[in-house]
Amino acid sequence: MAKYLVTNIPSSVARGVKHLKSVIEERYRLIEEHGSNWEGKPNDMLMWLMEEATGKEKNVEALVIRILAVNFAAIHTSSMSFGDALFRLASHPEYIAPMRAEVEAVIASDGWTKLALQKMRKVDSFLRECQRVHGIASIAMSRRAMKDFQFSDGTFIPKGTYLSLPVLSTHTDSEYYEEPNVFNPWRFSDIREEEGERLKHQMVSTSSQYIAFGHGKHACPGRFFAANELKCMMAHLVLNYDVRMEQEGVMPVSDALMFGISPNPKAEVLFRKRQGS
């Protein structure tokens, strides 16, 4: 019972069960009655999970837990990333004008399209730099060794060992980044102007030096959608609003719990409709 005193996860799961139990049971009834396909069959995440579930994974609570996990990965991570970017922008409103000029030019040429988002290099660079210096976690790419393993330098990893990569120390390593502790909003857009660097340093690109989305074959598969989502919101923001903190230049202190980092939930940003150019 101690878990109920230190975490709200059980109560969140119970709340999810309350909302989804009747939906899940009705869908199972329809599957039993009509087979795997029927007219009006939902095409959503819950249905996909139900179709792939086997054994104990098919029970209501297990499905609810998976839905909650997907919600966290798809919604809260993007919310925290944008929250940090918003605070960064409001702390330094001088960054608005360059992004605003870029967005206006791109939208005039290509409208609100996927191609337009690809051309918003300053917006892309600003968001990538926010993730580099802050991010939403101090570690990434957590893995468990499934067997004993020895690296070429002799380091031995016993089976069952959990390993993670340090995000902050990687992203602030002077071997990889010039003036790594300085926030440079156009760091990556400037690099992308160089020959052969147009794709390597866009927001969704991963490497051993940039691991906000992980790296390798298990890198975040949703990063392409997330990047476009964040760029849409930032482009809309700079086009339509002026923002600043009450104390200009003061970045709200983030909250940190274990390895997680989140924007200060009590910080306030001043908004007004865009004034002038």
What does the model show?
By secondary structure, the chain is mostly helical. The chain has a single domain, classed as Cytochrome P450 (Cytochrome p450). Helices cover 48% and strands 10% of the residues. It contains ten helices and eight strands. A two-stranded antiparallel ribbon has the order 1-4. A two-stranded antiparallel sheet has the order 2-3. It is globular, with a radius of gyration of 22 Å. The N and C termini lie far apart (59 Å). The relative contact order is 0.12. The mean pLDDT is 93. Belongs to the cytochrome P450 family. It holds the Pfam family p450. InterPro entries: Cyt_P450, Cyt_P450_CS, Cyt_P450_E_grp-I, Cyt_P450_sf. GO terms for molecular function: heme binding; iron ion binding; monooxygenase activity; oxidoreductase activity, acting on paired donors, with incorporation or reduction of molecular oxygen. This is Cytochrome P450.
